[in-house]
Specification:
Elements (H helix, E strand, L loop, with lengths): L2 E5 L3 H12 L4 E5 L2 H10 L4 E5 L7 H11 L4 E6 L4 H9 L4 E4 L23 E3 L11
Parallel strand pairs: 1-2, 1-3, 3-4, 4-5, 5-6
Helix pairs in contact: 2-3
């Protein structure tokens, strides 16, 4: 089974993402802070990590560096409302597989590289809308 770690400090969005990916066959773990994310990767690892940039404690970029040290082949998808070129560049430099802008649209899963764990996606920034406005539809 594919394991996913969702690192998001906003509880509603974190729960929404957990439900969405669990319903699609992922074994999902979640972390609130950067420190929790690193500890979860040490203890349980994950194939795919959804990682917010702005977190309590360690920043998402620092967490990305540590995850890549622990598990270089893990897919890391940065998720953020922060649309700054220098942040996208840093994420790319540290090994992020994609950079997705919040809010999300769950009706469009073609953008999501987590569904193809064995086929690395191209680094990209895309605007998507949806989850922060409520849980996924039926």
């Amino acid at each position: 089974m594919r394991r996913m770690l969702i690192v998001e400090d906003e509880p509603r969005l974190r729960n929404c993402l957990q439900q969405f990916f669990a319903a699609r066959g992922f074994v999902v773990a979640a972390a609130f802070s950067g420190e929790e994310a690193v500890e979860e990767m040490r203890e349980h690892s994950a194939d795919v990590v959804l990682l917010d940039i702005v977190l309590p404690g360690l920043s998402g970029l620092e967490v990305l560096k540590r995850i890549k040290q622990l598990r270089p082949r893990a897919r890391v998808i940065m998720v953020s409302a922060l649309d700054a070129e220098e942040v996208r560049e840093a994420a790319r430099e540290y090994g992020a597989d994609a950079y997705i802008l919040k809010p999300f649209d769950f009706s469009d899963t073609t953008w999501f590289p987590a569904f193809a764990v064995t086929d690395p996606p191209r680094m990209a920034a895309r605007r998507i809308s949806g989850c922060s406005h409520g849980p996924p539809g039926p």
